[in-house]
Amino acid sequence: MPEYKAPIRDIKFVMKELLDCDKHYHQLGYDDATEDMVDAILLEAAKFTEQVIAPINQIGDQQGCTWTDGVVTTPDGFKDAYKQYVDGGWPTLSQNVEFGGQGLPHSLNAAISEMMSAANHSFAMYPGLSHGALATIEAHGTDKQKQQFIPKLVEGSWTGTMCLTESHCGTDLGMLRTKAELSDDGSYSLTGTKIFISAGDHDLSDNIVHIVIARIPGSPEGSKGISLFIVPKFNVNDDGSIADRNAVSCGSIEHKMGINANATCVINFDNAKGYLIGEVNRGLNCMFTFMNAARLAVALEGTAATEAAFQGSLAYAKDRLQMRSISGIKNPNGPADPIIVHPDVRRMLLTQKSIAEGGRALIGYLSQLVDITHVEKDEAKRAEADTTLALLTPIAKALLSELGFECTSHGVQIFGGHGFIKEWGMEQLMRDTKISCLYEGTTGIQALDLLARKILGSKGKILQPFMTDIGAFCQENAGNPAMTQHIQALGTYVKQWQEITANVGKKAMGNADEIGGASVDYLMFAGYVTLAYFWARMAAVAHSKLENGDDKAFYQAKIHTCEFYFKRILPRAQGHAACIEGGVDSMMALPSEDFAF
């Protein structure tokens, strides 16, 4: 099993040198997020993930969760590790001080979440979903609901879930059948079954707070008739203490391809007591608070998996001796050369490295935008941050999860036959990571959200702030000879992005299916260009730092990796552009009944 080491040096590069977190935190009033404090937290998080979370990753996959007579038990070591997580105060880090949190920035917590996910994807999901439940209740709950539920969620003694999917409806939530009937005391009685509920039941926390969508009788059909409810596993007294068991049960746990140590549950509600969040029939609007947070978390999972795969692959490639280099012997004292000397192995390693570090930069940038939406007092700045988040969230979620799966596949390939063997851990990374392409909206759903609802829905206006940022960066670096090729390439691709947008919009006016036909390729094109922008920014920083003569190897590696990205990864975008140009007709011409086998 690869030994995970938190990439502290690169995390600090993104936070401090690329994104200037010290200035960012000062401007937003995060006075406790001093340089010394941030450094100390990152180092302690590294110790926790390396020494507590990572060692139980493989055993969690081997044992999985167990379900016996409705009771779910997590694998060996998980309960103790979660207790250490809570005792260490990690759940409280970026939460509201009013409810017992430390009030530190979301972006700092995001860096720690990456470490946890890379070390142990399954474990990280248990507290990860609580953040979305917290955000939803804090944004839309009543004062009483906040006092009842948030403090325990903040401290981590309770955890949260998101209950959307039913057996007959996944993405199409308007088809849900779970009903919520008003009770005499003002609460609601919920009846129905939800499936695929991550961390839906377990033995880690004292209570589990389910955030559930359901339909109140008499409400409109479809998505316009959905309401949102808090439904705890144990009922809660007015003072926030636990009362009797609610009519919520785990009917079974799924047998899955990966993330075996996280309980993916069938949850039954049998006249369970629940509490309306927000307005009647406005549940889906409220739920987007949870879903958007979850989509960013999944983007982070893709980056984390890529980092873990890269670390394992790199260590193996340096150690494994196979064949001689075609350009001459590199290891004269051994029977063969280490496989890292072979160009194709380097192709895969550099793909992993460029995606891990590029994804980390994108996630760091998005997490700072979340900071702005949380505490910035200037309404215009909050609105601009919201706009850019709306644009880049589906791109980050889909792109980084798809590339995460690709990069874990490269990990298996680099290990060769050993990669296919469980004891090495690479195939587990690949199995665990595939779910990231599926949950919180598949790649196709993210692509439709991006192109149909956001790009075409805004007539392209949502693109403008981000395009302006890229244009400003290119202008600032136009006179830097070390950046000339990257700046020219960025300018060309951004112009092409705008032209593709206009062309798809024109085609869609004649045939709406053109949107669906182009959407995934459009998202991937946009994603590769977005990562190119962040790689160019990182290269610019690296060039400037090299002039000071410090840490030359690190900065030179950044520059080389940027070169690789622009020459070997960014050109993929042209393939997607060609597919978009090909149109939808080839997809739709074959009649459904003629799909024979």
Tell me the layout of helices and strands.
Elements: H1 8-18, H2 21-28, H3 35-53, H4 57-63, E1 66-68, E2 71-73, H5 78-87, H6 106-119, H7 121-140, H8 143-155, E3 158-163, E4 179-182, E5 188-198, E6 207-214, E7 227-232, E8 234-236, E9 242-245, E10 248-253, E11 264-277, H9 283-319, H10 343-375, H11 379-415, H12 426-434, H13 443-456, H14 464-476, H15 484-510, H16 513-546, H17 552-569, H18 572-582, H19 585-588
Parallel strand pairs: 3-6
Antiparallel strand pairs: 1-2, 4-5, 5-11, 6-7, 7-11, 8-9, 10-11
Helix pairs in contact: 1-10, 3-6, 6-7, 6-9, 6-10, 7-8, 7-9, 9-10, 9-11, 9-12, 10-11, 10-16, 10-17, 11-12, 11-13, 11-16, 13-16, 14-15, 15-16, 16-17, 16-18
The Cα radius of gyration reads 24 Å
Mean pLDDT, to the nearest integer, reads: 96
Biggest beta sheet summary: 7 strands, mixed
The first-to-last residue Cα distance is 41 Å
General shape? globular
What multimeric state do the chains show? single chain
Number of helices: 19
Low-confidence stretches: none
Secondary-structure-based class equals alpha+beta
Q: What's the β-strand tally?
A: 11
The percent range for strand residues is 5-15%
Percentage of helical residues? 55-70%
| Secondary-structure element order, N to C | HHHHEEHHHHEEEEEEEEEHHHHHHHHHHH
